[in-house]
Automatic annotation (TrEMBL):
Segments traversing the membrane: none
SUPFAM superfamilies reported for this sequence: (Trans)glycosidases (SSF51445)
Superkingdom of the organism of origin: Bacteria
Organism field: Paenibacillus odorifer
Homology family: Belongs to the glycosyl hydrolase 1 family.
Descriptive protein name: 6-phospho-beta-glucosidase
InterPro entries assigned: GH, GH_1_N_CS, Glyco_hydro_1
UniProt keyword annotations, A-Z: Glycosidase, Hydrolase
Any Pfam family the entry gives: Glyco_hydro_1
NCBIfam families associated with the record: PRK09852.1
């Protein structure tokens, strides 16, 4: 009755994660349309800036400039690392590490280039057939995110992004198309990457362009509501195509702790943590949490819903809860009174004096991962997947193709230890797909030099380089971790 688990389960999904827009490149190949990600601007002057301004809101003018080669603001599209043409080589490397799972996303714009067509693009569908077949050849389970920060640009400029209810139908058409096409090849799905980021980065998460929405808070939650309904309908589509399918939600989860035991700090922490938990509450339970009414009243938010929405969300909650975890944060009700504890945009908190930080100021807290896993499991009693975790760092390629990324090994090792602790705590942890298993373009900075991978890619911030793949020290380390099912770290 009380079985203590001291090892990782036999079927644990060891692997890594990536997103189409950061990995694939070939943004104008195979009939692909432009996505939001294709027009991000890389700012060479602020190389260490997190989550650049365009992640929040862009204007129509900026979008036009980014697409106009004559403009000095022109950015030559997301170059990725050309996985589109290197996928066989890349998957062979993942297989060499012993990957059991590869979390990847489908670029919506390869399937429906503008988003609102009726007929899908066969070339795009065929590309993912080849990728899934290749993964299958090595027994690697694909875990597929339907929307990872890259809706078709056309849905943004023409319809106003997710604030428009019409986008639900376009997304469901896309989800149904891929669910049906890949029903024999994909079992694990995720609907929206870091869905809670609608409250942090409206452009990238919602497809909202600045001048469309003077009341941005209303737009955020209206768009989120549409994503909830779309996610439930996509879950339905995946399960109708394959009753064995497992569909998960995905939230960016930064564990937040009170800066002090002052009751105001404690309440502020509860409130702030709900900017993440609100989303898992809806998607894992299938209904809005009790605190929604008050939260909406205080923000003057009045949602437009349809009578069927409640039932749809109730009928199709997710099967598992997945999340990204890079850091934790501390919350103070009075941050202005804390000397030296500057605000952290990503956690919405202040600096925790007990924790070290990465080169980009992300506060490293492995023990917080154990707490986060336990919290999510206690709340929903559904399997948990650690869908992203990792250290963005400046790697040095030494002579003889050597990359000694011991700092990355240390980071990952300490986090994996805590997953093992969470398993011993009794949590059903499905797997661990660390972020950026192959180096790729960083989402928040658009940089190549912020690397996460076990595999180095010879390419610089402007997309120049041979794109040669080189194994880092962490490659061999992770290979052994997987081979020993997490016993040797
Ligand atoms: C997550 C995203 O938020 O963080 C990824 O899902 C992203 O797309 C990752 O790459 C790391 O962020 P960054 O900005 O360092 O690439």
């Amino acid at each position: 009755m009380f079985e203590l688990k001291t090892t990782f389960p036999e079927n644990f999904l060891w692997g890594g994660a990536a997103a189409a827009n950061q990995l694939e490149g070939a943004s104008n190949v195979g009939g692909k349309g432009l996505s939001l990600a294709d027009v991000y601007i890389f700012d060479e002057n602020t190389p260490k800036k997190n989550w650049s301004d365009q992640w929040h809101l862009m204007t129509h003018k900026q979008i036009e400039e980014a697409q106009d080669p004559a403009s000095e603001k022109y950015y030559p599209k997301r170059h990725g690392v050309d996985f589109y043409h290197h996928y066989k080589e890349d998957i062979a490397l993942l297989a060499e590490m012993g990957f059991k799972a590869f979390r990847m996303s489908i670029a919506w714009t390869r399937i429906f280039p503008n988003g609102d067509e009726l007929i899908p693009n066969e070339e795009g569908l065929a590309f993912y057939d080849r990728v899934f077949d290749e993964l299958n050849k090595y027994g690697i389970e694909p875990i597929v995110t339907l929307s990872h920060y890259e809706m078709p640009l056309h849905l943004t400029t023409k319809y106003g992004g997710w604030v428009s209810r019409k986008v639900i139908d376009f997304f469901v058409r896309y989800a149904t198309t891929v669910a049906e096409r890949y029903k024999h090849k994909v079992k694990y799905w995720m609907t929206f990457n870091e869905i809670n980021c609608v409250v942090h980065h409206q452009y990238v998460s919602l497809g909202v362009i600045e001048e469309n929405h003077p009341n941005i808070e209303q737009a955020m939650f209206q768009g989120a509501h549409h994503q909830f309904v779309a996610s439930a309908l996509a879950t339905k589509a995946c399960k109708e195509s394959n009753p064995q399918a497992m569909v998960g939600c995905m939230v960016s989860y930064q564990l937040l702790v009170p800066y002090s035991c002052d009751p105001d700090d404690v309440q502020a922490t509860v409130d702030k943590q709900r900017t993440s938990l609100f989303f898992t509450d809806v998607q894992a339970r299938g209904y809005y949490p009790a605190y929604t009414a008050r939260m909406f009243a205080e923000k003057n938010i009045v949602l437009k819903t349809e009578p069927e929405d409640e039932q749809i969300m109730k009928d199709y909650p997710v099967d598992y809860v997945s999340f990204s975890y890079y850091m934790s944060g501390a919350v103070s009700a009075h941050p202005e009174k804390i000397e030296g504890a500057e605000g952290n945009l990503l956690t919405g908190g202040v600096k925790n004096p007990y924790l070290p930080s990465s080169d980009w100021g992300w506060q490293i807290d492995p023990k917080g991962l154990r707490t986060a896993i336990n919290q999510l499991y206690d709340l929903y009693q559904k399997p948990v997947l650690v869908a992203e975790n990792g250290l963005g760092a400046l790697d040095v390629l030494q002579e003889g193709d050597v990359i000694e990324d011991d700092y990355r090994i240390d980071y990952l090792k300490e986090h994996i230890k805590q997953i093992k602790e969470a398993i011993a705590d009794g949590v059903d942890v499905m797997g661990y797909t660390s972020w950026g298993c192959i180096d790729m373009v960083s989402a928040g900075t658009n940089q190549m030099s912020k690397r996460y991978g076990y595999i180095y890619v010879d390419q610089d911030d402007m997309g120049r380089g041979t794109k040669r793949r080189i194994k880092k020290k962490s490659f061999y380390w992770y290979k052994n971790v997987i081979a020993t099912n997490g016993e040797q770290l």
